[in-house]
């Protein structure tokens, strides 16, 4: 297994660690006038490390020509698992920072696109790599999650809901990239109608 694929697997391993930290209660600290639960701060660190592996595995794979079918499939899957876990945990009663309807739209988009990717693999025998609109979606999802995990700590003093702004950008990118994915791959359904 090459280094980019190992980084992808490592990202998947960090997901239960992140989840466990989100479930723990460890007290809180006050940073810049904002109360931040310690477990969420630690979860944010784990999430950031996982997000950085997403950036690194792609850079290394492209630079060293180590792009594999496993990487094309597992890298976006790891991203989806990481981001969806975080969004769902941010809906819960301890945080309540993500509106459930936004998480639902993003989850539905991810399931639809993943299903389409599986159909493409079955029909064409090829794994389709993530496109730029989806990468932009993932970037803003990850930034939103980090800011929301940190309780908007940096931006509260200036009154900017940066986490929600990034989340809405991610939502728009999710809808656009989902539609784009289906439009570009509509030929998969040509013989179905």
Structure commentary:
The structure is a single chain. The chain is mostly helical. The chain has a single domain, classed as CDP-alcohol phosphotransferase transmembrane (TM) domain (Four Helix Bundle (Hemerythrin (Met), subunit A)), CATH 1.20.120. The protein has six helices and two strands; from the N terminus they run H-E-E-H-H-H-H-H. It has helices spanning 3-23, 38-63, 69-89, 100-124, 132-149, 162-184; strands spanning 28-31, 34-37. A two-stranded antiparallel ribbon has the order 1-2. Strand 1 and strand 2 form a beta hairpin. The chain is globular, with a radius of gyration of 18 Å. The termini are far apart. The relative contact order is 0.13. GO terms for molecular function: CDP-diacylglycerol-glycerol-3-phosphate 3-phosphatidyltransferase activity. It is found in: Cell membrane. Its EC number is 2.7.8.5. Belongs to the CDP-alcohol phosphatidyltransferase class-I family. This protein catalyzes the committed step to the synthesis of the acidic phospholipids.
Question: What order do the helices and strands come in, and which of them pair?
Answer:
Elements (H helix, E strand, L loop, with lengths): L2 H21 L4 E4 L2 E4 H26 L5 H21 L10 H25 L7 H18 L12 H23 L9
Antiparallel strand pairs: 1-2
Helix pairs in contact: 1-2, 1-3, 2-3, 2-5, 3-4, 3-5, 4-6, 5-6
* Count of domains: 1
> Order of strands in the sheet with the most strands?
1-2
Overall geometry:
globular
Radius of gyration: 18 Å
Tell me the fraction of residues in β-strands, as a range. under 5%
Protein structure class: mainly alpha
Largest sheet, in brief, is: 2 strands, antiparallel
Q: Number of helical runs?
A: 6
Mean pLDDT value: 90
């Amino acid at each position: 297994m090459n280094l980019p694929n190992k980084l992808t697997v490592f990202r998947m391993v960090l997901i239960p660690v992140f989840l466990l930290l989100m479930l723990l209660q460890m007290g809180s600290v006050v940073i810049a006038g904002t109360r931040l639960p310690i477990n969420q701060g630690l979860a944010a660190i784990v999430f950031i490390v996982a997000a950085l592996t997403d950036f690194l595995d792609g850079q290394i794979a492209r630079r060293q020509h180590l792009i594999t079918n496993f990487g094309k499939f597992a890298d976006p899957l790891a991203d989806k698992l990481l981001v969806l876990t975080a969004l769902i945990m941010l809906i819960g009663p301890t945080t309540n920072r993500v509106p459930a309807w936004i998480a639902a739209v993003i989850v539905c988009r991810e399931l639809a696109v993943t299903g389409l990717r599986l159909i493409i693999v079955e029909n064409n025998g090829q794994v389709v790599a993530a496109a730029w609109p989806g990468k932009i979606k993932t970037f803003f999802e990850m930034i939103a999650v980090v800011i929301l995990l940190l309780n908007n700590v940096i931006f509260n003093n200036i009154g900017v809901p940066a986490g929600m702004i990034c989340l809405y950008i991610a939502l728009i990118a999710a809808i656009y990239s989902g539609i784009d994915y289906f439009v570009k791959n509509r030929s998969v359904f040509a013989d179905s109608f």
